[in-house]
Amino acid sequence: MTEHDFNQQLLAFLDASPTPFHATQKMLEQFLAAGYQSLDERDTWSLQSGGRYVVTRNASSLVAFTLPSDPVVTGFRLMGAHTDSPCLKIKTQPEQVTKGYLRLGVETYGGVLLSTWFDRDLSIAGRVSYQSTAGEIKHQLINFKRPVGVIPNLAIHLNREVNNGVAINAQTQLPVMVMQLGEGEKGSFNEILLQQLQTEGVSDAEQILEHDCILFDTQKAAVVGLQNDFITSARLDNLLSCFIGMQSMLSGGDAVASVLVCNDHEEVGSLSASGAQGPLLKSILKRVAQTEERYQQMIAASMMISCDNAHGIHPNHAALHDDNHAPLLNAGPVIKLNANQRYASNSETSAWFKWVCQQASVPVQSFIMRSDLACGSTIGPITSAELGVRTVDVGVPQFAMHSIRELAGTKDAYHLMKALVYFLQIERI
């Protein structure tokens, strides 16, 4: 696959994945098309040497794995990412009518860069749970696709100090305006969802029981710059890594046992049944190993690369970076390090990743946060602690992390995939 083809497929994946549910569905479809067998956690598994398998939980987290040889002997080559991104989530009973405008109340999910959500063409997507005409409880993904709402900014004439920095109140200033009502009309979000289900071909929905819906920006992902240097899109953090991991699995061959885990809920701490601090990955690996001793042997022989985007040095704010650890866009994937274990990288695992990049002819960089600034974290330390597996935290450098629209380089994701493909071919670590 060429870099151009890779990036075009990446853009399509980003546009098709407005929520963790949609991202997981798209990855599941691609794995199944490549011959992976879907497993249900409720069933008895009969895993075969040479088999390729995929499991989902909550329809928002995914684990894909291959078994070409005995993983107890060779260990697993693990890759991790997360499916969720900071966003605005629509409340269960969101209707607010003011001066004839129907607005939907929202909650902030994760560390949202709130100012970027104003004056955007917003749509709605997510999962709807409903009662069918036959009395069954069913679940359906929906995507309005077209712009259906906006959060209008207040004119500068009414807020003269806005350019000096103004706090944003999530309760009162973020409800999204979706409709202007006639006199005596009452807006109902559940009725809106019922109509959307019908539009998307669901004919048996009788009553909405619950929904898990978010707002998203309808502007398409794009390659930008005079020399096409950059990719700009929503949800680069961290669907970019999910796509890289998926393409690495599909391109990496079957030399050794390999795993891709894409967890939900990283942006809110990972503590959930489908998050990295939950039991999903461990339970699957234990079912592969079958006994506790074999599991411990397998983990000791394994290594994990946790992929989550890194902070590239911002040319307008260069002073906020450590000059010696300030990654550039399009200069290769980044090893993320932190003395206080906010990242799981250590000298052993960092050395391994540098060696992998050298073998794959991929440039590599390092990132350490300024010592006087707080550092973020990833699923790396959580998964490493849960499993006891050697782990390195890496990622593609980007700007505008947690904005409604983020920016990365056109070369870095492809470089990281090449490194991961090589990683999946190493017989002993």
UniProtKB/TrEMBL annotation:
Short name of one Pfam family: Peptidase_M18
Swiss-Prot/TrEMBL keywords: Aminopeptidase, Hydrolase, Metal-binding, Metalloprotease, Protease, Zinc
Enzyme category, top tier: hydrolase
The protein's matches in Gene3D superfamilies, at most eight in alphabetical order, are given as: Aminopeptidase i, Domain 2, Zn peptidases
Q: Which cofactor does the UniProt annotation name?
A: Zn(2+)
The lineage's top-level taxon is Bacteria
An MF annotation (GO) of this entry: metallopeptidase activity
Instruction: Cite a GO CC annotation.
Output: cytoplasm
EC numbers listed for it are: 3.4.11.-
User: One of this protein's GO BP terms?
Assistant: proteolysis
Similarity comment: Belongs to the peptidase M18 family.
Q: Can you say what this protein is called? A: M18 family aminopeptidase
UniProt source species? Oceanospirillum multiglobuliferum
